[in-house]
Amino acid sequence: MENKSLKNKLLSGHKLCDAYAEESKKIQAQLKELRYGKKDLIFKGQQLMDLEHKLTIAKEELEKTALDKESQLKALKDTVHICFSAVLHNQPSSSHRFPTSPSHLFRYSSLINSSRVTFQQPHAK
Questions:
Q1: Which residues, including other chains, have CB under 8 Å from residue 100's CB and lie 6 or more apart?
Q2: Residue 118 belongs to what H/E stretch?
Q3: Tens of pLDDT, residues 41-94
Q4: CB–CB of 100/85 below 8 Å?
Q5: Cβ-based neighbour number of residue 53 at 10 Å
Q6: Which ranges of 1-125 would DSSP assign to H, the alpha helix?
Q7: Are 115 and 125 in contact (CB under 8 A)?
Q8: Roughly what angle, to the nearest 10 degrees, separates helices 2-90 and 102-113?
């Protein structure tokens, strides 16, 4: 009888070990999935950081280009204004010529300030 009781205890212990082994395998599989998921998240996070860095650089380049364009436009307007003033001041006074007084030049400054000039952007490298 003691033999049978011992045998039952062994069988019961063996069943518990099998159940624990199955549970252990499941947990190990879940851990493996989590590790791969963690690696994937780290990789995707790195990709996002790289993209953010590239976007920051692109934004800075756009801002720089806009400032360059504005300064080029201002320089062009200043040059046109100087040339326009010089031409008007150097012409002999007559009724069919443009007026040369500064007050009359102001009337024509709207032509300079409202002109639209487009710049061809160099190709980005």
A1: 88, 89, 91, 93
A2: none
A3: 999 999 999 999 999 999 999 888 888 888 888 889 999 988 888 888 776 655
A4: no
A5: 10
A6: 2-90, 102-113
A7: no
A8: 150
